[in-house]
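Suppose a colleague, Dr. K., hands you the sequence of a protein chain of 273 amino acids and asks what its three-dimensional shape might be. Before reaching for any lab equipment, you can write down a predicted structure in C-alpha cell form. Begin with the sequence itself:
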Amino acid sequence: MKSVKCCSLPGVLLLAMGIWLLSAFSGTAHSVKQSVLTDEDCVKCHSGPPADIAVAGGKHKSVGCSGCHIGHPPTVKKPVPKCSMCHMGKPHFEMTGCLSCHRNPHTPLNISFAGNAKNACLSCHTRQTLQLRNNKSKHSGLNCPMCHSVHRKAPLCTQCHKPHSAEMAAADCRNCHKAHVPNIVTYASGIPSKGCGSCHKRALEILSASMSKHMALTCAFCHKEKHRMIPDCLDCHVRPHQKVGIVVQFSKCDECHNVAHDLNYLSAAKQPR
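The predicted structure, expressed as C-alpha cells, is then:
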C-alpha cells in the first residue's frame, strides 16, 4: 500500500487563503447592512435647518430630516425633495414655484409674497374669492399683498382710507364695512349716529334739534341693516290720523311731514285747511 504524501506548508497556506477569499466574495458579503443616518447625525453638519424648524417649523416639526431628505451624497445626488412629494390633493398644491413665497421650507409659514401672488392667495381663500368677484369694487382689482403684506394679518383700514370723522377709530370701520365687499354697508341698530352724521351732517342736525320721539333713536334704527335703505313710515307707525279723516285728504305721510328727521315740522303749504 502506497503512502499519501503530505502537502507542503506553503501550499496549505495558499489553499486556506483561497478558501477565505472565496467566502469573502460570496453571497454572505452582500448581506452586510449599510449604516443609516439619523437626525442626530444630520445636526452634526447642518445646525441651521433644525434650529429653524424648532422655532417655526409648523407641521414639519413632526417629519424629521430623513422624512424629506431621502439619502445623502454621494449615494443620492439630489437629496432636496419636491414639495409635491407630500403636499397634494388641494388646488394650492398644484401651483408651481412654491419657494417664491415659502422661501425657507424649514419655516414654511414664514411667507414672503413675491410679484403678483393673488392667484396663490385665492387658491386657498375661496370665500374671499367669491366675495371679490361677485361684488365688484376697487378692492377687486388689487393684488392681495397690497393689503395683506404679512400672511394671516388683517391690516387697518386707515392705512389707506380716511375715517368718516375724527372721532372714529380704525376698529370702527369693520362695524359697517367688510373688506372684501366694501360697497355693501351693513350695521347693527346700535351703531352711533355720529358715524352717519359725518356724511349726512344736515340730517343729523335736524334730528338732534327735533322735539319728536325720533330724536331719541339712532339713524340705524330706522335705516335698518343696510346703507341707503329708506323705510316706510308704516313700518313702525299705524295710520294715526285715520279717525279724523286726514288720511283721506293726504294719503302719503310726507305730504305734511316732509322732513322725516323732524316730524313736528309741517309744510306750511301743505297743512290741512
